[in-house]
Amino acid sequence: MPADRADQSKLRKALDALAGRFGDAVLAGAADKGELAVRLTKDVIVPALSFFKEELGFNAFEDLVVFDNLNSPDEGGARFTVVYRLFKFPGAVRARLTVEVGDGESLPSAVPVYRAADWAEREAFDMFGIPFEGHPDLRRIYLPDDFEGHPLRKDFPLAGRTGGL
Amino acid sequence: MAFREIDLNMGPQHPSTHGVLRLKLAVDNEVVLRVEPVLGYLHRGMEKLWESLTYTQIVPLTDRLDYLASLSNNLAYCLAVEKLAGIEVPRRARYIRVVLAELQRLASHLAWTGFMANDIGAMSVLLYGFEAREDILDIFEEYCGARLTVHGIRIGGAVHDLDGPLVSRIRAVLERIPKRLADIRSLLDENRIWKERTVGIGRITAGEAIDYGLTGPPLRACGVAWDMRKDIPYSSYDDFDFDVPLGTNGDVYDRYLVRLEEICQSIRIVGQALDGLPEGEFKAKVPRVLKIAPGEAFHTIEAPKGVLGFTVRSNGTDKPERVKMKSPSFINLQSLEHLCQGNLFSDVIGILGSLDIVLGEIDK
Amino acid sequence: MTPFVADVLIPLGKIAAVILYPMVMVVVMIWLERRVVALMQGRLGPNRVGFQGVLQPVADAVKLFFKEDIIPRQADKLLFNISPVLVMFSSLLAFCFVPLGEPVRIGTTTLTLWIADSPVGLLIVLGLSSISVFGVIFGGWASNSKYPLMGALRSVIQVLSYEIPTGLAVLTVVFLARSMDLVEIVRRQEASGVWYGFLMPVSFVVFWISAVAETNRAPFDLPEAESELVAGYHTEYSGMKFAYFYMAEYAHMVLVSSLVVILFFGGWLPPFQGVKALAFLHAVPGFIWYLVKIMFFLYLYVWIRATLPRYRFDSLIRLVWKWLIPLALANFLVVALVRFLR
Interface pTM (ipTM) of the complex? Predict the structure, then answer.
């Protein structure tokens, strides 16, 4: 399998196919050490995810990570960076799809493509307040339903907040 | 007898929810119609807390995630930070880490075997599993003084060296485990009641399992040979010769067999690591105050419960911008409703047990 | 002997004994179970209160006495309060009909080691032990809570199903002994020289399995399956009422073991009756033999519990309807046929 992972040309080809399919929506792409890293505009994220799943064979959804860029602006300049991590098995190739979301903007839900994204999106909604459109059951997952605020945002204090719980 | 559908609240104070999980069940007499896990009873805001701590201060907190396998959490986090900071871990330290992580896997699986059997009602096996686990916890105690929240792996290496007496003690313990395992297996493997309660229960196909994001033993019980130790080897795992045990049916019984076989494989790995323990440092030189230039790293390991990953993003200071944990229990639990569909109420407990969840890791 | 002693003191003493004897057995049994299971599991078990922890169950009972008695607000108070009494009472009452040994001769009077000697003693004992299931149903229903309700429902189905093979197995004994009098059944076994358990092993096995199921013990402890239903039908009970349920379960086990011994293993008879060389066994009082046999079956209960996982509800019912009842029926027919031909 390591031989397969080091196969840069395959990854390059996949990147080209992606660029051919989504054109300008692909903002940046790189292939390195068995990992594809792509930056996309947020409106093509669901078609891009299903492209990765159906055509490139990334069958597993690994993780969904949200970064709050309030204190350290990212290159896109938007408030949040959302990272989708996909995994291809067999082959052990990773893909990292990045989109930028502004405060108050919503993202289309990835659940129709990857069922495993269900709770990950609920967690992102709970912690950062990013709404995922089309999610079957978008509720807070950890905090009580009447909790105010989204704790992992950088402007949410670590302690000493009045109200809330 | 016509029965109305009853909503049954299982937990957060229930003997079999492995902590403070709450399941909202809709049952028709004994048949389960819907299962909805309700999380958050153990939510401690770890990820928020980590943003205010230095890289090294975070390590002991990772012990509290999956508290049955604290060393695996240490390892995953440290590997992610090392990847981000470009720290080269000495070979001896990598071997020590493998020994510790595999002993932790043994402890976690043995505890699981006990819990699982107890859920099904074989209460003696609980004690047999814990007796065997006790030996391993004693090793940890001798190694660094702690038993449960061990904090034995540090950024750059391990906390202590493995000295001769400890090595021989580990060997002695490893020799005892197969005997104890045989006791457990003789009570369960061919037991008709045990098989009736586990064979064909909570089945999932390989395709569905991957779709639901299952990892670890529940996935391998479906016959998918996804093991991060083989696929993306870390910490010198490619130096060791071991098999990835696979099941075929993806049911509770196969998950049990896979875990027991993994125990044997872990014993093999630890033996090889002790035999080939290289000379050298057990810890890399890491500055006391670790400042990492802005960047992001993601590292996964094969923890006892499944694929455990940490995303660490740095911002140039001594504290991370964000640490995100990909916890295997959290994702594995998602499939519970699918696994329980149409089964009996008693099976929910068996299926939940077979997923091997730890609430500390789910709620973070 | 004055009439006062014969008519008042002896009956009073017997009544006290019939209450004390099961209670002592229950205490011993609880201690035995906890110690034996502990030893089988490589732990120590209770060993602090009294010699080797024998008094641990007493200490527990005292603790439960002083605990707050909680009645859930939604509960049906009458039934909620009645059911522990019902369970306890039915088990204890049944002991009135259980003979403990041959009548003892003291001077001119004969002291029988039973309170009531009824020609249908066996029926009464079985009937009384079935009444205890009402306590379980009432308790589970009156708690007005879901886990107890499910426990009670399981209990109803389980006990009703297992009554059938029990009855069929008992009938074979009645056929052979031609009596429903428990004392008479033992005497017949003495006369025939073979205990019915060896004569009809199938009846014994069926009876024993059903008995374990009827007492809600592992591996058939579904009505109170801890890992599923928390504590089953007595989840909402606390204090002494809980203790009643707990003790009644053990009293029921003692009762069932006594029945097994009387019906299938010769009651108070010493073993190897026919063997001349072992005649010295007769020197041991019958009551001791009786206790030894009961303890063996109580130990069997504990042993099974420490070994086996719990059945699931559907396989439990399948076991009784698909295996035990046909087996018991076939056995019944064979015994009846043999009895008819001889």
Answer: 0.85
